[in-house]
Each structure stands twice: as C-alpha cells, then as structure tokens.
Specification:
The chain is of the alpha+beta class and about 140 residues long. The chain contains two helices and six strands; from the N terminus they run βββαβαββ. The strands form two sheets. The chain has a four-stranded mixed sheet with strand order 3-6-4-5, with helices on one face. A two-stranded antiparallel sheet has the order 1-2.
Amino acid sequence: MAEITIYNPEGLGKPLGQYSQITRVKNVSEWMFIAGQVATDKAGNIVGADDFDAQCVQVFANIEAALASANAGWRNVVQFTTYLVHSQDIPKFMAYRKREFPRMFPDGKYPPNTLLMIDRLVGEPFLIEVQATAAL
C-alpha cells in the first residue's frame, strides 16, 4: 500500500471544515480515480430527491462501494472534489462531514476537498456530486 501523509502545514490557514490542506503520497503502485458520484442506487434510481442529507449518504455509499471494488477503503482516499448546486447546502454539507467523517477517517486526517458551486448536475434532482482519488 502507498504511504499516505495528510496534514496541514503551519504556513496555511486552518481548514474551514472536515478536510486537510495537503496529501503526500509515496510508493504508489496504483491510482484509483472515482468518477463523480451522485445519489443513485445500484439500480440507477434517484435516492433522496429534495433531501440533501439523504443524497450525501448515498453519494458516499457509492464512493465506499467503488473503493471496496479494489479492496480499498476510506484510508486510501487522497482527495475529494465536491460539486453543490445550491450555496445554501454548504452548511448541510459541513454538518454531514462533521457527523460522518470521524467514523470514516477515525485518525482525524481528512483528505483535501475542493468545493465548487455549479449551475446544475447531470439531472435536475441531484444536489451534490463527489469525485474521489485514491492511492492503492
């Protein structure tokens, strides 16, 4: 497995949420790039239309399933990119991460995350999409 170091250097400000500023990866034998996940179940049905929290749960469950397909887990994630449709969902996203990330990342080292506001996702009902990169 790759040696992954996640940290916040003194020269950068404190992260504004459950993420870190930097991930360093050594001895990577393989990278895993997970396409942006939206709130659909494995049958392709939309989960949590108009329910941001339910969509977060499904999105991260999809990422977890993608990681498991390579015998990987949350410890392998080195970066997230998050896309939100509504800026008023930022506090909901931060609350979800504050509640769930300690379970997913028990060492408290949260991967860097870039958060972008966009006009819409692939379908109108989708409120969040998260892309992940992992080192295996």
